[in-house]
């Protein structure tokens, strides 16, 4: 710890002016002391400025300590009673670091010019439009297809827009738009702009709003957005009325300060944080998730890890990837018209030891969630028909999807040979099905033979062959994914809705000053400025009027007390 060394000039001042005893103090380097000395009616103020020398071999400072005495060669700064405070700290002035708020260390290190550029509103708006444009382009360009698809869709000889060929798509990573460097870079730039705006604009505004001060001049109060004078009133009665209306009230002598709606000042910061959460969650989903799709016939099993594929460099598999999934049963619901209305899949999940850990029947909009993996019911098909031929079998005939001209209808077909398989012109019985309800049969000449329902056990004879449709085996179309960004995105949207509503709260400030028997009132608000005068008039009308007693012996009283 260093000690203060006073030059011989101090002793000279002591001997010539006053018996002033100065003792060594522990001081910080380059310190300044303000003091007042009073002895036998003689008073003077002094300012002591010093520069410390360390004991580690530093050269003595050439700057001498000095005492400035009023009336000789300096003026001491006045001692002023603080009239400002900060909400929540008992009126004490908040001492802040030179660089700003603690916790924004990264932003502190950036030059002010860089922060000014990042927090520029037109730049932030342009970044938002760029993100929106890239998202729209990502919906226009089919994502995750093979390169051959883009070669045909965006050829170089006739590219869309005259220049947008497959080279643009594959080079810029637009085939995986939401994990491409262009999209993630634009998103990061927008996030940096939001943080810079919060640091340079919103946080200082909150600091200013949290400080409270008393106005000692009636003229200053009358210059506020709203001002009025109560001719016969008490500032204390006004404070009681304001407290009843939800204001935080501070008083000091004849002065009063009140405010409410401070949360509205914090809301923009919350909105920015919510947007950052949404962007962070979206980025995590783009580069840290797994996705996969599979169509599984009824009765078969598959392993989750064999289906899921990583989407980015942050994708990390979990223990649930070793889970084995079995499709126990697939079924459909139908409208009265015969159209498919809903389809269901009964799933069982098994661990590595073969123990069933979960079982659930899923459907569209009712997925299964286990160990961070979500299984969605997205599609269906018919995998096979079980057919009895002349009471032999059953034979499993694989069903294949047939191409239809337009529409979203599904049609599946299979073929049962009835001639010599080695013949170059194989003929047989054709079977078509559009769902699991019925099967249409055609003979070997292609003529309609009849319709049978699966599991009806009703035989039909075609070309001398007895056919029974024993069963139609459906296949369940499942989508699997792990998305660690979903909770973050949901939290961001929830916070965004909450802080957006809070941002509509008006931050209102009022000042009042007792001027004799009158009270001068003024105030301002950041929202609902048109309604503010009416609200203030309603509050001021509730302030009781001071009334003197008609009897000279009785003291003055306040009406309503």
From TrEMBL:
Segments forming domain ResB-like: 123-534
Chief site of localization: membrane
Membrane topology: Multi-pass membrane protein
Entry's transmembrane regions: 117-141, 182-201, 269-290
Highest taxon listed in the record's lineage: Eukaryota
Keyword Iron (UniProt): no
Region (Disordered), start-end ranges: 57-91
Keywords per UniProt: Cytochrome c-type biogenesis, Membrane, Transmembrane, Transmembrane helix
Pfam families to which the protein is assigned, alphabetical: ResB
Compartments it resides in: Membrane
Entry-linked HAMAP family: CytC_Ccs1
Protein name as annotated: Cytochrome c biogenesis protein CCS1, chloroplastic
Source species: Solanum pennellii
């Amino acid at each position: 710890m260093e000690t203060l060394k006073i030059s011989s000039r101090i002793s000279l001042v002591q001997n010539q002016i006053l018996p002033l005893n100065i003792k060594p103090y522990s001081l910080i380097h380059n310190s300044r002391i303000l003091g007042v000395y009073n002895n036998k009616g003689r008073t003077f103020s002094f300012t002591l400025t010093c520069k410390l020398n360390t004991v580690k071999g530093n050269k003595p400072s050439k700057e001498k300590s000095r005492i400035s005495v009023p009336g000789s060669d300096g003026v001491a700064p006045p001692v002023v009673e603080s009239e400002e405070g900060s909400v929540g700290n008992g009126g004490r002035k908040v001492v802040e670091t030179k660089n700003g708020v603690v916790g924004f260390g990264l932003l502190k290190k950036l030059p002010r010019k860089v922060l000014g550029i990042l927090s520029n509103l037109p730049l932030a708006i342009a970044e938002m439009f760029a993100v929106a444009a890239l998202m729209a382009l990502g919906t226009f360009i089919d994502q995750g297809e093979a390169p051959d698809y883009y070669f045909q869709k965006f050829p170089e000889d006739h590219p869309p827009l005259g220049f947008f060929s497959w080279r643009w798509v594959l080079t810029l990573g637009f085939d995986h738009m939401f994990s491409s460097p262009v999209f993630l870079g634009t998103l990061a730039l927008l996030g940096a702009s939001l943080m810079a705006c919060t640091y340079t604009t919103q946080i200082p505004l909150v600091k200013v709003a949290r400080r409270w001060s008393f106005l000692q001049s009636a003229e200053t109060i009358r210059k506020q957005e709203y001002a009025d004078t109560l001719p016969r009133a008490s500032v204390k009665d006004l404070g009681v009325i304001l407290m009843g209306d939800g204001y935080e009230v501070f008083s000091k002598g004849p002065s009063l300060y009140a405010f409410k709606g401070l949360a509205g000042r914090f809301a923009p910061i919350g909105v920015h944080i919510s947007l950052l959460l949404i962007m962070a969650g979206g980025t995590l989903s783009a580069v840290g998730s797994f996705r996969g799709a599979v169509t599984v016939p009824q009765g078969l099993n598959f392993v989750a890890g064999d289906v899921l594929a990583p989407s980015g460099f942050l994708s990390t598999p979990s223990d649930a990837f070793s889970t084995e999934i079995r499709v126990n049963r697939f079924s459909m619901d139908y409208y009265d018209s015969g159209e498919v209305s809903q389809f269901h899949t009964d799933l069982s999940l098994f661990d590595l030891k073969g123990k069933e850990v979960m079982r659930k029947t899923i459907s569209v909009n009712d997925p299964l969630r286990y160990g961070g993996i979500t299984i969605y019911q997205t599609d269906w098909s018919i995998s096979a028909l079980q057919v009895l031929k002349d009471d032999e079998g059953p034979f499993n005939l694989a069903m294949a999807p047939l191409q239809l001209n337009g529409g979203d209808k599904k049609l599946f077909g299979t073929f049962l040979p009835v001639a010599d398989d080695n013949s170059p012109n194989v003929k047989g019985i054709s079977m078509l099905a559009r769902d699991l309800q019925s099967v249409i049969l055609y003979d070997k000449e292609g003529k309609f033979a009849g319709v049978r329902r699966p599991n009806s056990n009703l035989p039909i004879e075609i070309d001398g062959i007895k056919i029974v449709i024993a069963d139609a085996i459906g296949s369940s179309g499942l989508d699997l994914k792990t998305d660690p960004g979903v909770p973050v995105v949901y939290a961001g949207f929830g916070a965004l809705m909450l802080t957006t509503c809070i941002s509509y709260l008006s931050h209102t400030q009022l000042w009042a000053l007792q001027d004799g028997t009158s009270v001068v009132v003024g105030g301002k608000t950041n929202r609902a400025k048109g309604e503010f005068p009416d609200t203030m008039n309603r509050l001021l009308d509730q302030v009781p009027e001071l009334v003197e007693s008609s009897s000279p012996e009785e003291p003055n009283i306040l009406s309503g007390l």
